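Researcher: Next entry: 4-O-methyl-glucuronoyl methylesterase-like domain-containing protein (Geodermatophilus nigrescens).
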Amino acid sequence: MTQVMPGRSRDARTAAARRRRYTAELAGALPPSGPFEAWRAAGGEPAPDFARLPARTGLWSPAEGLPGGRAGAAAWPARRAVLRARWRRWLTGDLPPAPRRTSARVASVRTDGGVEAREIGVGDGWSVRARLLLPVPAAGVRRDVPVYLLQSSHGPWAEAALARGWGACLVAAADGDDDTADVERAHPSVVAGRLAWRAWALSRVLDALQDQPGVDARRVLVGGHSRNGKTALLAAAFDDRFAGVVSSSSGVLGAIPARLCTDRHFGEGVELLTRHYPDWYHPRLRWFAGREHRLPTDAHELLALAAPRPVLVSVAVEDPVERVPAARAAVDAARDAWALLGRPGGLELALRPGGHHADESAVAAQLDWAQSVLGGPPRRAARPPVASSPVPWPADRVRPGPRPVRGEELRTAVRAALGPPGTTAGAPGAGELRTPDGVAVTLLTPPGGGGGRGLVLWLGPPCAATGWRAGYEQAEPLPAQLAEAGWVVACHDPVGSGARHAERPAPGSSPLARMTADAAAVAAVAAAATGHDRPWVAAYGTGALVALHLSALGEVTTAGTVLVAPSCGEPLLRARPGYTLADLLATTAGRPAVVLDPAWDPEAPPGAVAAACRAAGVPRVPLADWHRLSAATRTAVVGWLDAQGPQRARV
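Model: Predicted structure:
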């Protein structure tokens, strides 16, 4: 009989208690999701023991701990197995092993306009349809061509490949045309996400292509857009035979890390992903809503699983599904795998204009890239931008320091941490309200027009795609709610976001220096335009830190401030700050102020914001939620301003 040590038994009881607590916290905060509740009722596991999972708000190297040179390359297969196991455990679920032999039946062949179309049925006990399209060679010529393997919703992409002399294969594994439910039914003991099943089906079609005449099976490229881009990355990550992969606007847990595109970034986020598309991943992923920083893997490791094969990550700069900074961080981190394997240029990030849609020019650029990496003429790769290295706001600067920093000492320390603001790339435009530096200012007015109850300066987190509009929100945007409540609301895109996505702070400056200078200028312009000389401030996340630095410098006299979750892990500063959140909060003394503090926050130690509020004498309202701007939190902001500000005019 095996004896259990008393300490180990206590640890198990403690871990179980923590899991029950985490489960209760999340159950109380998560919006309803029928499929998730059904999974739980059917015996789905409780929340993970987050205390035992590493907390990482930033990315790490997929090759961390491996030696360089040949020894590191030799160790990569074992590391790759670990990365794949992480994805199976936490995101995709376990899929069936590849069959020893995959049957393929050519149901029909027809030729039209110089293209031969073969309708192929793939599988035993299940069936996935595939349409193989090949250019008809000249008489007497046998030619094997590379093939672009796609899901059936990408017909125009297939036509573009055929126009280049490639083949294309369209697989019935897409929304509205999906045979993978049949595959899943044939494996009743397997619990896996829909995207993983689709990726598995793409691999089975690749099995079939090995024996198809006219196909160069060594040059089969897999690609896709949006959710299909996620599937393409999964297929290449778990099947080394794909020659390369194109990921177009694949979003969170495609090429975009979940921990860098969350609710607090107004990104796609785990909560939205698992509620709107509950079958895409294994149900347990939903437990990481608000705790994405505890997810043991992320998108950069998915990218690394394709190394050393060529990978193109295509991102649209105005796509609300993604964040350009998150894409850059993922590619930068994943490149370590290619460098380890001697292919440092194998992973490329391509930014394109516009929103989520990939137009003809985007597809043409992808094929240009594919031809260059799969044996065509070489192409000069775009020179990657030189990234600045600002300092993140440190988590240990949230709690009060050993002594308070006040007055001129604080202002001096703030200027040292921020650096000079520099200038912007903006330029004054006719007919638009702008700051002297050219930053566009948007004024939202009450439904009846006029000056309203007062002016509110809205400061949100930098959302790279949509600026102050903060796309992908799950409720009416807070600035719009404030305008409906009778306020005039001044909004602008922070540096590096929205219309200013390509703008970087000047050398020697920092993002927070530019954001703070812009906020002061926007407040002045809005005050002059509205006649309200003392604005109220409503701020969230990174915007809350902007508001507090604005207050510390004393450049704007505000009427009052409501701050939601004043913490962030963004790289913001020129140098480590010699002051704390408590020191900044103390500068709001003498005016109405409140902090709305979420129950759990990846970027602030537990209880740190509460301690800062106590030290500064600022009221704090706890939220039974995570670091996000939920509908309930929006209502709390509007309600606080209603109570503190001028009353609405009677009609």
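Model: Note for the record: Residues 278 and 645 are 42 Å apart (CA to CA).
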